[in-house]
Amino acid sequence: MQAIERLPESTPRRPMGERSALQSCIDACTACAIACTACARACADELDSDGLSKHLELNQDCTDICHTTARLLSRQLHSFKFLRSQLETCALACAACGIECRVHADHERCRIAAAACQRCEDACRKALRSLRASA
Fold first, then answer.
1. Domain span at residue 109?
2. For the domain that residue 122 is a member of, what is the CATH number?
3. What's the pLDDT tens digit per position in 60-106?
4. Cβ(61)–Cβ(93) under 8 Å?
5. Inside any domain, residue 41
């Protein structure tokens, strides 16, 4: 078990949801943010030739939202409404970004980002169900 996986167990706070669902969501958000950052950087290099401005913006937004969601989940907040809203926002951002990445699936980086977005969206929805079950 990696150190990051042991951190939630080392704090006195009881998590608001199932630890494994929340940890999976943190991992998926982090991976998605990294994939979208890489995709955005590469697409920025081609912006003029392929008209990728919408794609670039969605990747950047998704990256920021995923990073924020992972940080909030790792803090083990006690505000159910706030965390639920963030997870819903992250799932929506990943869905939108994934759709746009699939439009540009002729680029491998976009296929990778689309898959990461799908995994993150699924993990956020699972974490939401976990929160609702423990509320």
1. 18-134
2. 1.20.1270.360
3. 999 999 999 998 888 866 677 888 999 999 999 999 999 999 998 99
4. yes
5. yes
